[in-house]
Amino acid sequence: xxxxxxxxxxxxxxxxxxxxxxxxxxxxxxxxxxxxxxxxxxxxxxxxxxxxxxxxxxxxxxxxxxxxxxxxxxxxxxxxxxxxxxxxxxxxxxxxxxxxxxxxxxxxxxxxxxxxxxxxxxxxxxxxxxxxxxxxxxxxxxxxxxxxxxxxxxxxxxxxxxxxxxxxxxxxxxxxxxxxxxxxxxxxxxxxxxxxxxxxxxxxxxxxxxxxxxxxxxxxxxxxxxxxxxxxxxxxxxxxxxxxxxxxxxxxxxxxxxxxxxxxxxxxxxxxxxxxxxxxxxxxxxxxxxxxxxxxxxxxxxxxxxxxxxxxxxxxxxxxxxxxxxxxxxxxxxxxxxxxxxxxxxxxxxxxxxxxxxxxxxxxxxxx
Length: 368
Description:
This protein has 14 helices and 13 strands. By secondary structure, it is of the alpha+beta class. Helix 3 runs parallel beside helix 8. The chain is globular. Mean pLDDT is 93; it is low at 1-13.
């Protein structure tokens, strides 16, 4: 359904023009994409600061079952979780509990982070922006093998250093999850409790949760699917990624994610003011070629900020994060200057949605 908002406040002429934008061509393209790849279930939204502009769902929560995907169905959002961890770290800084220059070694003296001589200088900001200088994806293979975060931490001193901290980009799951340790050390709350009190509840994200148990016990949870012999089939859940909650441990509905996108567009300044959002969405480190998003048409520059990717895409500054974990994929992005954002959640391990974001902004900028 379409929920186009009229009479909303706008910062410039471009923002006014998108209010009259017809999303039907893009939604038709997305509909065909999902049908072509026989995606079991999907949930999609377009939002502005002022509200929800479009909501649509497809398919079922589990292949072979009748329960449909709705806007309240729960998906694992995988690496989209990093955007919440970035916000949590920024809240610690805003509340004067830490600074961006806080050194991890000062907080945890018994933890050696990597085998380089500069390990003691790695800061909270560098962890939150994947610029620690450590080998990319350190120990993600162990998560794939079902080994949890607490067991992997013992191996942190063995991580190879590939550059000095702050000099190069290296995407992480396990190392990034140190943000959870920093939150707990700084506040006395568990990471999940902190998100619930500081983000989920204030924003009205009523079904969002952290961890495996809430996911398994939620009657609205979708099932993960992978393709076997040409057919989508439900698969089990690897609990290890849930132990890296800042990197991949959040469960949420489409409605929850519309609230999160609107918050990042500045809809709730009493909770997330302009200064906090600027810290989140400002580039910290260049990201190199080699990832699927670096091959997007009309992509000029790519960076990582605090828990978010930042792109110059189709003439707009676009803030983005995708996610993928066994049986799930997701994409979300927004443009502050265009006052528009979108999110797509699917319960299938499929690369078919890799171009959902660039196609949206290409449609938006070439149609207006």
